[in-house]
Amino acid sequence: MMMANQFWAERTHSQALFATGADSLSWQQAMQQIAVLSQYLSGQSVKRAGLYFDDAAYFAIALLACVQAGVDVYLPASLSDDNCVWLEQTVDIYLADEVTNKLAIPTLPVSEWAALGCAEVNCYFVNNIAVVLQTSGSTGVAKLINKNWHELCLEAQILATTLPATMIQDRPIVLGSVSVQHMYGLSFRIMLSLYLGLPIYRQRLFFPEVLLVTSQTYRNVIWVSSPTLLHTLRLSHDVSLAQGHVVAVISAGGVLAQTSKAFLLEHICPNVVEIYGSTETGAVGYRGDQSYWQFFQDVRHRVDENGLVIQSPRCATEQILADAIVEYENGFELLGRLDRIIKLADKRISLMQLENKLMTHEWVADIHILKHPEGTHLAAWVALNDVGIQAWRQQGRKQVILQLKEWLAGSQEKIALPRHWRFTTALPRNAQSKLNPVDVQQAILQPVTQPVVLDQKAVAADEYWLRIQVPLDLVYFRGHFDAFHLVPGVIQIKWIIELLQRCSWLTQMPLQMENLKFQHFLRPADVVELVFKRDCIRRKISFQCLMHDKKISSGRLVIPDSESHVL
Q1: CA distance 202 to 217
Q2: Crossing angle for the helix pair 27-43 and 56-69, nearest 10 degrees?
Q3: How far apart, in whole angstroms, are the C-alpha atoms of residue 185 and residue 134?
Q4: Neighbours of 186 (CB within 10 A)
Q5: Which of 138, 350, 482, 510 is 20 to 30 Å from the Cα of 282, by its Cα?
């Protein structure tokens, strides 16, 4: 293991650039900062440090400084109240991009690193520190996963086997949409990049448009992303920006739909690598242009009634992945989690198989299928893409459901067809492509009655601005507006009043409406701007609902005298 760490250090030390992005940082500058920070941590007798960074370069510097100083690292998934309590009870210091007032422990933001002085540079990182990560698992409740530095180094070595040497000779920039606070981002954006001597793009790229534009900036790039983002790529995006620049796409954290993989291969680059594994096990298998998954060479496995059991030098104790697989001579096929293979009327049904089939439909961007929480039938939560949204607007909910059921019926028994459907423009997956069980329950059980507030702000003391989107599955569409969905005027007024109450401009019902006009239809997935202006003297609030250059509706509310404390 010592030799592996020395080899890793020598590989990274030989590179001219440590990270790139908004600002470039040379390897020499980074090594000096690592040495200074390591010296400071040792001088303060720090044993445990919490790290939370958006900037991948500063994250890597802090991590390597902790390795040199022998300081265990704790990586919160977010700065939620629960995680702040966890950090306060666990670590001696908090290292981060910026100052936070949420923690009652010593903090050291990047802005204070320059004042720490100088130190002698040491290019070796051999202390086998603990690295503690958080993962939501399948329950949505955070749990702690213990790794160590040696395991992370081995992870980088094994992952490097998925990228041919000819691909990395020109040192492509590693662009990532995944957080370095989690195993996927840590392994690929940080550890693999350092091991191969590849420059790291420092900022996380959340949106496909930004990923495409950034790719054009560099000669060669590698994408490290999740299916959540990759599934959103469409020809409506300017994919030409990335063509000729992307040498590989690495996807992990969930199942990459075959339609999305085919799109990437045709329009982005000829090398798409899928990684299978978990935070507990690390990377278990990979798939490039093969039909079946391949186990990494250091992985030992067996299958029992609990699923796939894994052991490797990167997870010393056996770990159970509750996945069903079928093995063949030339690889294995993933059937999905055992808890996603259910029985209905004595029939075994793979929810993952249903999802994969629906993902091949031209209308579907994302999907989650489950057994209905209050019944024995299946429920489907579907995110429609642009083409699907147009079909929804033109044909209506019933026709969309009918055609999706027909798409499934060709390969599935009737009992496997979902009876409950909920539609949206995007599923709220986290950085690991997982859904919060609470969100799933709410989506299936609660009718959609409110608009989605995308943005809002007080423009001035008497002017408020919001940007909202009309939900696809608004309950008010059903019935009278079943074939041609539109938001009734009375519902628009209801939303206006409720949004005014939410921004504390209104606590009671208005006395009356004046100059009320409805000039254009408000339809599913429409994104509109709402502008509220109040006249304290005349005791009136005016509103305008705008979409691009069109006025959808407008009017004035007359406010009761008792609302004086609001105005």
Answers
A1: 14
A2: 50
A3: 13
A4: 27
A5: 350
Task: Please tell me the distance from the alpha carbon of residue 60 to that of residue 192, in angstroms, as a whole number.
Answer: 12
Residue 479 CB partners (closer than 8 Å, separation 6+): none
Spatial contact of 84 and 101, defined as CB atoms under 8 Å apart: no
Residue for token pair 């180094």: 153
- CA–CA distance, 156 with 217 (Å, rounded to integer): 26
- Burial class (CB within 10 angstroms; exposed 0-12, middle 13-18, buried 19+) of 72: buried
Angle between helices 27-43 and 2-13 (to 10 degrees): 130
- Of 26-30, 246-250, 328-332, 517-521, which range is least confident? 26-30
Strand pairing report for 72-75 and 130-135? parallel
In this structure, what DSSP letter does residue 345 have? Answer: T
Question: Contact 552/520 with Cβ under 8 angstroms?
Answer: yes
pLDDT tens-place string over residues 43-56: 999 999 999 999 99
Q: Dmax of the chain from CA atoms?
A: 81
The candidate with the shortest Cα–Cα distance to 44, out of 122, 116, 135, is: 116
Distance between CA atoms of residues 381 and 378, nearest Å: 10
**Hey, what amino acid is at 216?**
Q
User: Which phi and psi (to 5°) does residue 537 adopt?
Assistant: -75, -45
Sequence length of the chain is 567
Token reading at 441: 């329950």
| Of 186, 188, 47, residue with least CA distance to 129 | 47
Helices (H), 129-207: 149-160, 165-168, 183-185, 193-196
Q: Which two tokens stand for residue 362?
A: 């031209």
Cα separation, 493 vs 556, in Å, equals: 11
Mean pLDDT of the chain: 88
The string of pLDDT tens digits covering residues 396-450 is 999 999 999 999 988 888 888 999 999 999 999 876 678 888 899 999 999 999 9
Q: By three-state DSSP, how is residue 114 classified?
A: helix
Token couple for 361: 């439909």
Q: Extract the tokens encoding 386.
A: 């642009």
pLDDT tens, position by position, 343-396: 787 677 888 889 988 998 999 999 999 999 888 899 999 999 999 999 999 999
User: What are the Cα distances from residue 319, in Å, to 309, 311, 506?
Assistant: 6, 6, 56
